[in-house]
């Protein structure tokens, strides 16, 4: 059985949800989660130097480049908000041939490309309640099956 890795992208305001709900759901299915931004302390709107901002971007793009699959958590409540970094990361993942999975709302036309292997409209995934964790685990199981199918191609 192939062990897969994923990068989980989202708006920085969703960092805790990504770290405490999505990350454990993927890890429970044997995935390695590459996203180091889940453990960053400072949001980019805080006081960072230009060099620090560049380093953050370089780390994130590196993490996307070494992962097997790209997951974007994009709840409807985040539609057209935030810094847009998750969309840049998605475009980068598309450009380098990563399979894309969207948890939440599709936004730009690029989310309808064939490289987007799945989209789950998940606005009910908002807090680490028991149902949310169970839903996240079910979706991760589906993503794992899709990535395994991709391995066979």
Write a brief structural summary:
The chain is an alpha/beta fold and 153 residues long.
How would the blueprint of this fold be written?
Blueprint: E1 5-9, H1 15-28, E2 32-33, H2 50-66, E3 69-74, H3 85-95, E4 100-104, E5 116-120, H4 130-152
Parallel strand pairs: 1-2, 1-3, 3-4, 4-5
Can you put this structure into words, describing what you see?
A 5-stranded parallel β-sheet has the order 2-1-3-4-5, sandwiched between helices. It has helices spanning 15-28, 50-66, 85-95, 130-152; strands at residues 5-9, 32-33, 69-74, 100-104, 116-120. The mean pLDDT is 81. The protein contains 4 helices and 5 strands. It is α/β, with parallel strands linked by helices and 153 residues long.
- Helix and strand content put the structural class at alpha/beta
Our measurement of the CA-to-CA distance between the termini, rounded to an integer number of angstroms, reads 15 Å
Q: Give the helix tally.
A: 4
What is the beta-strand fraction? 15-25%
Report the average pLDDT across residues.
Answer: 81
Keywords for this structure?
alpha/beta, 4 helices, globular
